[in-house]
Amino acid sequence: MVFAAVLLVAILGFAAYVRLAPTDPARWQVDISTLPGLDWTRLPVDATGVVALPNGAMARLTLAPDQAPATLAKLDAAALATPRTIRLAGSAAEGRVTWETRSRLWGFPDYTTAQITVTGAILIYARQRFGSKDLGVNAARLQDWLARL
Questions:
Q1: Which of 10, 21, 29, 45 is most deeply packed, by most CB within 10 A?
Q2: Per the domain annotation, does 140 fall within a domain?
Q3: What span, in angstroms and rounded, lies between the C-alpha atoms of 17 and 77?
């Protein structure tokens, strides 16, 4: 009985921490083109254009430079139409946007950043905050957002 009570308190404490831990937008709204471990030049893509990573997903949209701002604005609208998603920082007009999407049950936060490059491409990087594997959730979300463009 005591073990069950301790376990319940631990689970509720973890759930509260995940939902209430403060988010620093500056930690997530970064230049993703320079992040270590992400080689955008050798990005292998599948038919959807999204590459699943162990803890997230990445995609690159190759566009004409004049198409990138409107496409990023459409991506912003698709993201904001997703349940439990908010714009954390940036805007399409600034050329870089970061969104926070929380899971339904536990409220785990995932962060997705999209930015326009000098060549007009849009780089998109979705990653989780807690844990080491996301079970394909970020890749599925990116596929959904790209399908809405």
A1: 29
A2: yes
A3: 29
